[in-house]
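Hi all, long-time lurker, first post. I run a small reading group and we've been trying to get comfortable going from sequence to structure in the token notation. Rather than ask abstract questions, I figured I'd post a concrete chain and ask someone more experienced to write out its structure so we can walk through it together at our next meeting. Sequence below, copied exactly:
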Amino acid sequence: MPKVTYIEADGTEHVVDAPEGISAMEAALTNDVPGIDGDCGGQAACATCHVFVDPDWIERTGHADSEVELPMIELSEGVQDNSRLACQIKLTAALDGLILRMPEAQF
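-- Answer (accepted) --
Happy to help. Here is the structure in token form:
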């Protein structure tokens, strides 16, 4: 079961164990992690699960898909090279220890 650390903009950490195969957004919602809204239910149709993948993990998660994720991410404030939609990060054993930081607000 992969362990994921979500870090709020103020530095508050939330460490959760999540089953493989679900998205990082689903893991956050299931574990009541504040700062991940997931308004579209994981369809990459909004950016309310915008996260910043820790630089040590970006090669394992991959960068945002240019056709699906980027158009939504670009609507967010504070976009960075390591911006992703948590709904598009599928959790696997290889992502055990993943660190995701959240922006101050989701839109």
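A couple of things your group might point at:
The longest helix spans residues 24-30.
The first strand starts at residue 3 and ends at 7.
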